Amino acid sequence: MRKSAWQWMHTELESLKERAQFRYLVDSEPQGQGWLLRDGRRMLNLASNDYLGLQQRSGIADAWMGAAASRLIVGNNPVYRRFEEEFARFKGTESCLLFSSGYMANVGVIPSLMGRHDVVFSDRLNHASIVDGIVLSRAEHVRYRHRDLDHLETLLRKADTGSKKLIVTDSVFSMDGSIAPLRELVELKDRYGAMLMVDEAHSGGLYGEQGQGLVHELGLTERVEIQMGTFSKAYGGYGAYIAGDEVLKQYLVNKARSFIYTTALPPAVIESVRLNWLQARKEEWRRKELSRKAVWFREALRQRGFDTGESESHIVPLLLGSNERTVRFSEKLQQAGIAAVAIRPPTVPEGTARIRFTLMATHRDEDLQWAVEQIDRAGRELA
Ligand SMILES: Cc1ncc(COP(=O)(O)O)c(C=O)c1O
């Protein structure tokens, strides 16, 4: 990453150091009976929230021990650091910082980077957690039409040249299955001196030769300042990460309120996420199968006259428009034995209610074939 892009961050971190307000993470490992190992030294723990000592009761899964406070207090179990280092290597970034969930990452990161005098450019169909992050930041919130680069460029041109600018986008859009034009966004952000944040919630684990994500697959790792992803989708777990430069990590440790002021994920969650991640990495057949099934399913619906919008992924919307029709459609599918959710405003824009189908690598071809027939029948019955 161009170091000049982060000059303002270096300056702010230096200023925190001068005021003795700089925070950093120190490994802390519980040892029982109120003692812990902090940075390799045994210390009496007078900073825990495990008031009744229940976490350290032997017999309860040992892996659960260790949080019981923010990571900046005494909760920084080495499990986090080790996983962050491993995951950063996998992503090809200098560093990585874990958050308790994708929602927490987005509402923490955006306000820590952007403030009252800054501008955030956000795709109109970005996830709600991004929208909430922008609102919390108090920056000017500029929404551009979905994937519309001309519109975004017009808005970038109009923005005050003196303000800090951030473009933020989902990589695979959660309700549409469409894919952000990341290459073009990188060009635009460079041209207008903006930063780019990409939310890989629905592409992590699925794109890239080992599932590193779409940014990695397109060879853009060095050019995207902030990558966010969650472990709650393809990795079948819980928790989230921000991947990027080391200075970004240090900055977030000091500034992201949803990192600082909350208890960290239990180490057991990290351990289980790690196992799923290692498996996803090596089992390429899962990515291939998902991709093959998604192409087949989308095409099968399109051939039967359904509108699947701009989907290019394993998320396939069936656009129906009216809320009533969508609810009836989803009821019919449920009666037929298919669980698929009716998505209505405010989750999606007014007049674009839909059924959202999401595919899995482990779906059987014959089950998907059967599902398409049921969807077709429901469509004809409601015509
Ligand atoms: C694009 C996107 N970002 C962030 C999130 C939030 O992730 P999490 O469920 O880990 O809080 C979601 C989840 O629905 C999402 O779809």
Summarize, please:
The chain is of the alpha/beta class and 383 residues long. Helix content is 40%, strand content 17%.
Structure write-up:
The structure is a single chain. Helix 12 crosses helix 13 (365-381). The chain has 2 domains: 3-25 and 76-280, Type I PLP-dependent aspartate aminotransferase-like (Major domain) (Aspartate Aminotransferase, domain 2); 284-381, Aspartate Aminotransferase, domain 1. Helix content is 40%, strand content 17%. The chain has a 7-stranded mixed beta sheet with strand order 4-10-9-8-7-5-6, with helices on both faces. The chain has 13 helices and 13 strands. It has helices at 7-18, 78-91, 102-113, 128-137, 149-158, 182-191, 214-217, 246-255, 257-260, 267-282, 284-303, 323-336, 365-381; strands at residues 28-32, 35-38, 41-44, 95-99, 119-123, 140-144, 165-170, 195-199, 226-230, 240-244, 315-321, 341-343, 353-358. The longest helix has 20 residues, at 284-303. It is globular and about 70 Å long. It is an alpha/beta fold and 383 residues long. The model has no long low-confidence stretch (mean pLDDT 92). It binds pyridoxal-5'-phosphate (PLP).
